[in-house]
Amino acid sequence: MAFLFCVASMSFLAYGVNGIRNGLACSIVLFAISMLNKQEKKNYLYAALLLIAATGIHTSTFIPATALVLSVLLIKRTKTSIVIWLVSIVVSLVAGNSVIQLIPDFGLDMSRFDQYISMGEKSDVMQRFANAGFRLDFLLYSAVPVLMVWYLTIKRNFNDFTYNVIANTYILANSFWIIVIRAAYTNRFAYLSWFLYPIVIVYPLARMKVWENQNQKVAWILMAYVGFTVTMFLLGK
């Protein structure tokens, strides 16, 4: 079931045929997450080494790697990360253009980052690439796992260390993307959180009973997930 959700995600094909190096780096981040366990503190060292390896393969994974570290050491409550996500939307709407100009000054030397930021400001480029500008559709797509996290961890009191880490990592990394949402090729920044999208959805469905007739409802969710991915592919998004 988990593998089917991963295959159905929008980022799966893109990582396999285009962004192979980025996909490999994100896979290593996932491996680092799997190493984390409250009872095995020594695994934290292994996870840290894996994160270093991931950023060495593709520098952009510095973003989810940082989100993961914050999720383990500082922001442990999903409620906090959800608040940060909501605040990032407000910041992006109010001062997004100003904020993205400050990010390269932090020394974050991501591949072509400066180029994407500057391209996002040019109207001709904005018209040529549908992925530039404030993408409400992408934002709504990204909101689904956030709603899932809110419902399970806050409404239903689902308390699982690994899931909290996965959820917070996704939400924090997605918050960064929302800040730079107006950059050209914004989908490339979105993928730095979206690679966790299917995991956020399917992990609790495999670990707990969320609804009555859960298997049937999971099948419907998977069909909707596949349908959305196919639709976006046909639209060329």
Provide a descriptive summary of the structure in words.
The protein has 237 residues and is mostly helical. It has one domain (2-235). Helices cover 75% and strands 0% of the residues. The protein is built from 13 helices and no strands. It has helices spanning 2-8, 10-17, 20-35, 43-57, 62-73, 78-102, 113-120, 123-128, 136-155, 161-179, 186-194, 197-207, 214-235. Helix 2 (10-17) packs across helix 3 (20-35) and helix 9 (136-155) runs parallel beside helix 12 (197-207). It starts with a helix and ends with a helix. The relative contact order is 0.16. The model is unreliable at 105-111 and 115-131 (pLDDT under 50).
Count structural domains: 1
**How many whole angstroms does the radius of gyration measure?**
17 Å
Compute the separation of the termini in Å: 26 Å
- Main beta sheet strand tally, sense and closure: none
How much beta, percentage-wise?
under 5%
What is the β-strand count?
0
- Helical stretch tally: 13
Listing every helix as H and every strand as E from the N terminus to the C terminus, the arrangement reads HHHHHHHHHHHHH
Shape: globular
Poorly predicted parts? 105-111, 115-131
- By secondary-structure content and strand pairing, the structural class works out as mainly alpha
Q: Indicate the percent of residues in helices.
A: over 70%
- Compute the average pLDDT: 76
Write the layout of secondary structure elements.
Layout: H1 2-8, H2 10-17, H3 20-35, H4 43-57, H5 62-73, H6 78-102, H7 113-120, H8 123-128, H9 136-155, H10 161-179, H11 186-194, H12 197-207, H13 214-235
Helix pairs in contact: 1-12, 2-3, 3-4, 5-10, 6-10, 9-10, 9-12, 10-11, 10-12
